[in-house]
Amino acid sequence: MKYIIIIAILAIGCDKEKVEPPQPDCNCGVVILTGGARTPNGVRTSWWYDIRNNCTNAVLKMKVSSPYPSDEHCRDSQW
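Below the sequence we write its predicted structure tokens.
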């Protein structure tokens, strides 16, 4: 009986702390490879990426001359 009372007091008296999920960085986005250009012998010369913003889902298109090194791209402002 004593254990039941202790468990009941603990269950009633404990306020669970609300944990909010982490907010995404709105200046960053996920990098998605969409294609690239190749020479006639198959050597890749450029890469095309779509970058989807974490907050707005807006797409930024980017063409670069070397593979992008990360799965995330950040800018100084939200796009």
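The longest helix spans residues 2-13.
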